[in-house]
Specification:
By secondary structure, this protein is an alpha/beta fold. The protein folds into 2 domains: 239 residues, 3-Layer(aba) Sandwich (Rossmann fold), CATH 3.40.50; 150 residues, Rossmann fold (3-Layer(aba) Sandwich), CATH 3.40.50. Helices cover 44% and strands 14% of the residues.
Length: 407
């Protein structure tokens, strides 16, 4: 059995899917040691792994992309945060390496410093991406804007122009920050984000087709499904058992962004519909809307609710959206930032739900989009079948075991 060190960024939405893979590895008898955000320690302990918090200086660097007024500005703020965290990650991962002495390392794709430090060790290592990273793949639109795929010469021309006019200028500060930290650990520079991301011997993507776009992603890129945490036996809470209507689940981000209004709009939109709204606001909000047909909580296990859901209204987080689709529940996505524009577009293209830009959000518009999404159950089931066909965390664990065992 191997000793494995895993390292995540300070984001619950990254810990949860990676945790599903780590739990599988732990159940197979491997000794798994995790470094993650301080608020996720209790969850991690429940996975059967040894866990310690990451350097608090990393958590202190806020992902403040919610302050931006447009997707390009948000990407710039994200790049800045990842770049400022990277130097602290190098020292943090090196300390963990000395303490754990692992046989293999698994690193969150957003941890540029830990990513580089892991590569520099010469140990078997892999990267884990809970969202679609900025890889260059023929036929797949450049990451960030949520563009619809276009085939043929016109599509190739559009993608080339967007990469040149938008992608490369955005990449420059990212690549500069990455190369600074790579130089610090004795590695050669990279020329692009694509080249950097492909340095990992294995890059696990927590998704699968037909939700993810079909293309030649590369031999080291492995889609292993949404990595939904395995649900154990749980007691259904009394408030949920008392709901006598079909449920519409509404989710907002676990990271701060301006999406709290989605809950109030959903409650208003569905007031006269024969459904009950269950909404989660993990990032918190000062005022919660009141309705006889709505239950609004900070946290709830979505699997408890999805078994009775006829639709999930999401902010476009990859985890929440794919978790619903993995159960065959169609979705209505209202994207606000980050990778959410990409998620919303994939939902639309796969025919497993609907997309409503946040700037067009209103109760009547949302109600119409939810009704439309409810009619797309066949598309949602096709996505669920596609996720299952990836082999899931079992296949991911097989690949990682082979990587470590083959060293």
């Amino acid at each position: 059995m191997a000793t494995i060190l895993a390292y995540t960024s300070p984001a619950l939405g990254h810990l949860l899917p990676m945790g599903a893979l780590l739990s599988e590895l732990s159940h197979r008898g491997h000794a798994v040691h995790l470094r993650t955000l301080s608020s996720g320690l209790d969850h991690a302990r429940g996975l059967g792994v040894s866990v310690e918090p990451i350097d608090p200086r990393i958590e202190a660097i806020e992902l403040d992309d919610w302050k931006a007024s447009n997707p390009i500005g948000a990407l710039k703020l994200s790049i800045s945060a990842f770049g400022r965290r990277a130097p602290y990650e190098v020292g943090d991962l090196r300390r963990a390496l000395r303490e754990v002495e692992p046989d293999g390392v698994l690193v969150d794709v957003n941890c540029w410093g830990a990513h580089s430090a892991a590569e520099a060790t010469g140990l078997p290592w892999a990267s884990f991406a809970p969202y679609t990273p900025a890889l260059t793949v023929a036929g797949v639109p450049p990451f960030g804007l949520g563009l619809k795929p276009m085939s043929g010469p016109i599509g190739r021309l559009r993608d080339s122009l967007v990469r040149a006019g938008v992608g490369r200028p955005l990449e420059r500060p990212a690549v500069a920050a990455i190369n600074t930290v790579r130089s610090r650990v004795g590695l050669n520079p990279v020329g692009s984000l694509d080249q950097f991301l492909r340095r990992a011997p294995h890059l696990f993507l927590a998704t699968g087709t037909p939700f993810q776009y079909v293309g030649d992603w590369g031999e080291n890129v492995h889609m292993i499904g949404p990595c939904v945490p395995e649900a154990g036996p749980v007691e259904v809470p009394a408030w949920l058992a008392a709901i006598d209507r079909p449920i519409v689940l509404v989710t907002t981000s676990s990271e701060r962004q301006s999406d709290a209004g989605l809950v109030g709009t959903a409650v208003e939109a569905l007031t006269d519909e024969p459904v009950h709204v269950v909404a989660t606001l993990p990032a918190g909000v000062d005022h919660l809307p009141d309705s006889a047909h709505a239950t609004i909580l900070r946290f709830v296990d979505h699997d408890l609710v999805l078994g009775r859901a006829v639709c999930a209204v999401t902010h476009g987080g990859m985890g929440a959206t794919q978790r619903a689709l993995a159960r065959g529940v169609p979705v209505c996505v209202v994207p606000y930032g980050r990778d959410q524009f990409e998620v919303a577009r994939r939902v639309e293209v796969a025919g497993c739900g609907t997309r409503l830009p946040a700037k067009r959000l209103s109760a009547p518009q949302l109600r119409n989009k939810i009704r439309e999404a409810m009619g797309l159950t066949s598309g949602a089931r096709a996505v669920a079948d596609g996720f299952a066909a990836t082999g899931g965390v079992a296949r991911g664990a097989d690949l990682f075991e082979h990587l470590v065992g083959g060293n």
